[in-house]
């Protein structure tokens, strides 16, 4: 509009077709795979119980890694309307209801790991929040362990992002 003398050049540039690329299928876990992943933890150690609680929350809520690592004890509300609050991408706040089974796992974890309201929900052995890389390593570690009982996990790339996509697929399957 401001430079009509360049209209022909602009039209040629806009006529260039966009680059073609293949879209990959977003991976997610089937129910048996999810069950195997959640059963792969060593419940005799507190780190195994922490990791079990972390992955249970990740699978059920579909939270991003940054949201998971930013959770504090005060973000969890247990009781008749159990839910978990988080601050996500773009400082958006959301509240996600928890299933009874997830609420039980979190209640047991919070009883074991007492602390202040602003303490990380899933801490390291020194009490700090887990790093993004640590969470990714935990997911990979337990997926490898679960692959022994569920062979279909061997062919899938399991990452925190995979767990994020598992949540909506569970909702689709349940008809919600």
Topology, element by element:
Layout: H1 7-14, H2 31-38, H3 46-61, H4 65-69, E1 76-77, E2 83-87, E3 93-97, H5 100-112, H6 132-146, H7 160-174
Antiparallel strand pairs: 1-2, 2-3
Description:
With 176 residues, the chain is mainly alpha-helical. It has a single domain (39-174), classed as hpI Integrase, Chain A (Orthogonal Bundle). The chain is built from 7 helices and 3 strands, in the order H-H-H-H-E-E-E-H-H-H. A 3-stranded antiparallel β-sheet has the order 1-2-3, with no helix packed on it. The chain is globular, with a radius of gyration of 21 Å.
The total count of helices amounts to 7
Q: What is the highest CATH level, the class?
A: Mainly Alpha
The name of the CATH topology is: hpI Integrase, Chain A
Dominant shape: globular
CATH architectural designation:
Orthogonal Bundle
**Helix-strand category:** mainly alpha
Radius of gyration: 21 Å
Order of helices and strands: HHHHEEEHHH
